[in-house]
Amino acid sequence: xxxxxxxxxxxxxxxxQGGRGVAVDYELAFHYFSLAAAGGNSNAEAYLGRIYAxxxxxxxxxxxxxxxxxxxxxxxxxxxxxxxxxxxxKLCKSLEEVRAWRTESRxxxxxxxxxxG
Length: 117
Known about the structure:
Layout: H1 5-17, H2 26-38, H3 42-54, H4 63-76, H5 81-88, H6 95-116
């Protein structure tokens, strides 16, 4: 049986957070988020970014991979530059990188605003 992307994200969230009689299982959460992200689900991509940013279970921290997933997620949704900046600032390696990313986010947002009216 093939689960819809929303169901995959829902199962990922359930295993990521635990509850409703289900124990936290980061590996299963990662599995379901990966399936949904492969289908282009921005929520799943954001969760993968968070897992890689924090490290969870057997998944080691990897800021480059976290940044990749968070950026993919952000590209699909309409976020303000501040949301993008605050979501990704902790992944940047230096203050200069933070400044550059903040500027890039602001410019990207302004360009989208012009295109979308």
